[in-house]
Structures are given as structure tokens and as C-alpha cells.
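Worked example

This section walks through a single chain of length 181. The input is the sequence exactly as stored; nothing has been trimmed or padded.
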Amino acid sequence: MATGQTDPHRRERILAAALDLIAEAGVAGASHRRIAARAQVPLGSMTYHFTGIDDLLLQAFTGFARHVVTLFETHLGGATTADEAREAVTDLIHTLSEGPRRDLILTQELYTLAARHEPYRELCARWMRRSRTLLEQHFDAATARQLDALIEGLALHRALDDTPPDRALTREAVARITTTA
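Given that input, the structure is written out below as C-alpha cells.
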């Protein structure tokens, strides 16, 4: 394997390997040795690029959170009317719930860490603020907060349900939250 200087993508490979391993074995199954083996890098690369396993995990989950925010941006970015925004939210929920099982697992692993450790709670808070900011381009702040929770909850329920609700039910739930009486 090439040295760090001739392997400019080593750090990114380590972060990707960490997320892949977490999706497969959980945070509890992630170690420097296992991540290095999966990334096909020398074990010493781990301490060269990261101060420890906590630093590595936090950076890996930070990249994952950016990935999810990018999905929000992609879906909501083209909406110019409230109806288009509602449909974009519906599409987003279905994309998240029908997407890679890996993303669902990583989200839940991150939430578990956030429930126990402040740096991950701060990461989730930044992620939620960014998601709500994107939603607030189309809806008021209170509605954006409710939609953010709906997106997370419905995506999880749809992903884990043997017979997930169809788009019509998702569209109706989005409409109920976003349509004023």
C-alpha cells in the first residue's frame, strides 16, 4: 500500500470504512484495527489521521450528516411553491426510507451516541438546524420543526414496516402539517 504522501485519499477511505463497519457491526464493533483492515491501510494511519477512535467516529458521522443534509438540499432545492415543497418533502421521506439500509442503521447508531455523548448531541443539533433551515425556505419555523420530526419518524417507520404506508398517506401527513386551517 502506498504511503500517506502518495495516498492522498487515505483519510477519506478510513472514514468510509468506519461507516461501513458501523453499519455492519455497530459502533461497539468498530475498532482501529478493524477499520484499518477494512480500509486496507496500515494500523499506524489511524493515529496519524485521528487523535483516537472518538475523533474518527465523530468525523465519520459528521460526513454522514453532511450526506443527509445534501439529500435535503437536493429534494427541497428545486421547489418554488408550497405544493412543490410538500411534494419534495414526500419524495424525501420515501428516498430516506427506501434508500440504503446502511443509512438507516447509521442514523440510528448516531442517535444512540447522541443520547449518551455531548459531541454527538451537538452534531445532531447542527444537523437538525441545517435541515430546518432548508425547510424554512418553504415553511414557517414551527412547521419546519414539525416537518423535520415527521421526516425522521416516517422514514424510520416506513423502513421498518413489513407493509409500509404508500405515498398517498405520506403526502396526506405532510399536507396536514403544512396546510393552515
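What to look for: The radius of gyration is 18 Å.
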